[in-house]
Fold this protein.
Amino acid sequence: MTDTILETRGLTAGYVPDLPILCDVAIRAARGRITVVIGPNGAGKSTLIKAIAGLVPVSAGTVTLEGREITGLRPDRMAAQGIAYVPQTDNIFRTLTIRQNLELALRRAGPGASARLAALLDRFPALAPKLGDKAGTLSGGQRQFLAVAMALAADPRLILMDEPSAGLSPRATREVLEMAQALAAQGVTILLVEQNVKAALGIADHCYILAEGRNQVDGPARALLDDPVVGEIYLGGRRAETA
Amino acid sequence: MQNLVDGILTGSYISLAAIGLTLVMHILRFANFSHAELLSVGAYAALVFDKAFAAVFPIAATKLAPLSLTLALLAAIVVSMAFTGATAILIDRLVFRRVREKGNELSMVFASFGMALVMRNLIALGFGLHSQLYSRDIAFAVILSRDPLILVKPDQVFVLGAALVLMAALHLVLTRTTFGFALRAVAENPALAQVNGVDLGRMIAATWVIAGMLAAAAGVFYGLSYQLIPIMGRDLVLPVFAATIVGGIGSVYGAVLGGFIVGIASNLALLVLPSGYSPAVPFLLILAVLILRPNGLFGEARA
């Protein structure tokens, strides 16, 4: 994989000292590509993405962004480094209006904030008529769009997305994943954690499979999708269908 | 009717104090029993600054009739708000932050009990146990209505007006500025606020400053309405907590409404209860709200 933007080496992390959930995890995300991390429940996928974002303490190993070590930086400093994180749930501020959510995310944009807000609304037109509504009134799919819009507000180099399809209808899932594809096509790097394996492998360029907090297999997403052994062991006990 | 008017006036400073307490309780996740002592700090700081300004600028000691206030006291209120905000941050740095980093929420509550006693006794040590007044001039009440008879002192009207102005200013900050959005974001979901680039440490400091400033104003307004005594924090802690709980922890607007409810209920209770029982009213309100609506009027359940 060339032109790596994010790399973890020997990453060991967990919520409680001396009880790591991730052990010696190594991944790389290439610029402008979608890298997906999949695995069974409890594999440590979300912990990996939170450790990269600075939300889970790292006890060993390193995280580098474009060659610069950012291990253990505070989450707000991560944001300043160009890393955006979209959590699986509770990813918007329900008590703020949609406009206030976006303006909060845009507050460091300076004089260009109004133009950036207009550009975000062009990209997510479903949010435009609801700007004055409380974000808590949005549907699940709309919340994901708002969360991604907030992530994009800071003009990130890398977006960490934690199971964006969780709890969404098949249609909303398709829309969210298509949006991720569109972002990658525009040069934004995406590291995606996803339970919907078939859909995730369908849009990803590269895939890592974690189990019990450790690297198991990695390779081009399409190749893993078609690999009967991987499908048997890691992808739900049967070969995943080709998208 | 007089009791209702008195209740509204009482509610104005209880609301101000409750706003600060609800912000601290929601953002820092602990019941700060030393919050009411910040009212004492602000009230006594204003007393000191008032005397200092009047000594340096004698012309500022002239009364602003019909109020008993002087320009020196008005300036002292502003400076004491800043002083109390800084004091609140200092207490956090010296005590609460250290406990927060090593202990749990219960440790914080006990630390706040201890801090309340320390603050109360330091004020008593510095200013004596006797009561003090901002002005020894007799303030005459104005007749608002003869039937029913309603009397209001001009200072009380100033207190209500100033409290409403401060509440409106805070409302504008919270709903019109990105700083206000960030503060509300931290209150709702600190981790998400951080990943959206909000500096949690700065927001915690800002919370203490706002809480301290509003507490100082509330303390001065209490002093203008009654008198300054070192144990005023002890007397006010229950009504302020009752207002916070009635309104719903975390809700600024709930704290405002809760303050007025507690103020009005305490004063209306005087119609049917001997005055000695009036302090029990906030406690009864706390119990009623916890039983009937545990999250308060505007509060939400939180994990």
